[in-house]
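Deliverable D4.2, example record:
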Amino acid sequence: MEYKKNFDVRNERNLTMLVDFYELTMANGYLDNGVGNKIAYFDMFFRRVPDEGGYCIMAGVQQLIEYLSNLNFTSDDIEYLRSKGDFSDEFLDYLRNFKFCCDVWAVPEGTPVFPNEPLVTVRGPAIQAQFVETMILLTINHQTLIATKANRICRAAGDRPVLEFGSRRAQGYDGAIYGARAAIIGGCSATACTIAEEMFGIPAIGTMAHSWVQLFDSEYDAFKAWCLSYPDNCLLLIDTYNVLKSGLPNAIKVFDEVLKPMGYRPKGIRIDSGDITYLTKKCRKILDEAGYSDVKITISNSLDEHIISDVIAQGAQINSFGVGERLITAKSEPVFGGVYKLSAVESDNTIVPKIKISENEEKITNPGFKKIFRIFDNTSHMAIADLITLFHEHIDETGTLEIFDPVHTWKKKKIKDFYAKELTVKIFDNGTAIYESPDVSKIREYAKEQTQKIWPEVLRLENPHHYYVDLSTKLWELKQSLLHKYSEIYEE
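Output generated by the structure prediction step:
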């Protein structure tokens, strides 16, 4: 019987106070200085792709919507803040009557994204737009990191399914739960995390551990018992003692003596240790000779995209991969460096751009209220480049579009016969959610479809081609004007 429920039931908790303390002290200061209601624009973006990759996969928007939709301060929260002695009565009253009223834009989940693109933009009273910084970064950084890692691993696996097996090695409960969600968005077929299926409707799977085999008097008895309990879904873990001398012979014996007489076919075997290439080649040959060419081989042994690529290139006979700690923790680079920066304020209903300047060039921000266009070839429908523009700009698809590198401006490209797609969508209007997230399986399919529109040179695991993310002429000129305006600070 199919199980149906409200998948949001376990999300019912108040995360309003999950903030960095400085967001509260700044908010109090904004109110004290009469600028709390000044309209501000903040962008969330990242500067560098993890693992020296060529792209990332956007994820976490649904959880961001849930957070922003439920902002409220309890009486306990107010009393706690009062006890700190840092906050005015006026500020505490503001929090007691708090109502979120910002506009928010975001790139939909599953979209391939690139450095310096505004993934989330918040417009609203400075006191509110600043307050949500931590949770925006926490939510988008984590899930985008895991979705990106999962996508790299799944592409390395090709058409072989990848199963997310990392719950027990995740950094905490939410790391396991939302990491499983992000892994599915990135391309994984299923997860071992049961609660993730209950919450998000994504498939949870699993069979046995080594302890099952050890519990019985013999490996044969353990396999036989499993077959009797699950005759229509029999997948045996065969490396508890010795894959080729014990595990596989006992598995085949049980297939012959137990499953066949019952009228069932075995589903597969799993190997969790040893030389993957050697063992899978041997197992495949023995299974085929025993009449079990339909039996699948699953591997789950500290895998990542590099190991998977290597064993496939070596001719390993694998039908699916179970990937755990190196996926759920993004072990090779476990930090996604998203940042949240002020880009503009409003004064007399006019947008006044703001810029952060640094001697480190990559930390200089792009000013103003912006959006992103992705430029596609009209014939191949492959992505050519992304263009960050001021929000009011439009792209004329009937003529020639000239783009240029925002740093090395002599590097230019003229594009003809193209179409442009705006990437960001509005998800909140005056504090009310107006965007409905697709379910996770649909986001997964969208991610697959959109990634296929990125050239393979950008997607490759090693030394990927640099994808063009350029600024419109108006945005570039605005940035240069602000740089010149503040250049006197650096004059000696």
